[in-house]
Automatic annotation (TrEMBL):
<comment type="subunit">
    <text>Homotetramer.</text>
</comment>
<dbReference type="Pfam" id="PF00436">
    <property type="entry name" value="SSB"/>
</dbReference>
<dbReference type="GO" id="GO:0003697">
    <property type="term" value="F:single-stranded DNA binding"/>
</dbReference>
<dbReference type="GO" id="GO:0006260">
    <property type="term" value="P:DNA replication"/>
</dbReference>
<dbReference type="InterPro" id="IPR011344">
    <property type="entry name" value="ssDNA-bd"/>
</dbReference>
<keyword id="KW-0238">DNA-binding</keyword>
<dbReference type="GO" id="GO:0009295">
    <property type="term" value="C:nucleoid"/>
</dbReference>
<protein>
    <recommendedName>
        <fullName>Single-stranded DNA-binding protein</fullName>
    </recommendedName>
</protein>
<dbReference type="InterPro" id="IPR012340">
    <property type="entry name" value="NA-bd_OB-fold"/>
</dbReference>
<dbReference type="InterPro" id="IPR000424">
    <property type="entry name" value="Primosome_PriB/ssb"/>
</dbReference>
Length: 131
């Protein structure tokens, strides 16, 4: 059995880049930063960032282009894909995630909105909460 499914959770490194193919298909490219922590040889915690390239097509591409921006926390579900092309007589390889689904990490968004909402509404909202 073979399986090619990838799930990454991270932050968008830049605004999505949109283009159209000759046949009229819409393609969006984006990069996702995935932060990870590790201990170095001295036992100190360090942080490293892995960058993953993502590509989406047509309706999904349009949604990403309209709704997502640099810094947004996202979840990407898709499959790894490698394109091979020749440059100066040498084969070049481009590996990326071909996205089936891309969405905002709602728990990050909701925390931000909830904090902002209560601060903006003042004490009156907190007085109405029955607990």
């Amino acid at each position: 059995m073979n399986m090619n499914q990838v799930i990454v959770v991270g932050n968008m490194g830049q605004d999505p880049k949109r283009r159209e193919t000759v046949s009229g298909n819409v393609v969006v490219s984006l990069s996702v930063a995935i932060n990870r922590n590790y201990k170095d040889k001295n036992g100190e915690y360090q942080q490293a960032t892995d960058w993953v390239n993502v590509e989406a097509w047509n309706d999904l591409a349009n949604s990403i282009y309209e709704d997502l921006h640099k810094g947004d926390a996202v979840i990407v579900i898709g499959r790894m894909k490698t394109n091979v092309y020749e440059k100066d007589g040498v084969n070049q390889y481009r590996t990326y995630i071909l996205a089936d689904e891309v969405g905002q990490r709602l728990n990050k968004w909701r925390k931000k909105e909830a904090t902002t909402g209560f601060e903006d509404m003042g004490e009156s909202v907190q007085e109405e909460i029955p607990f």
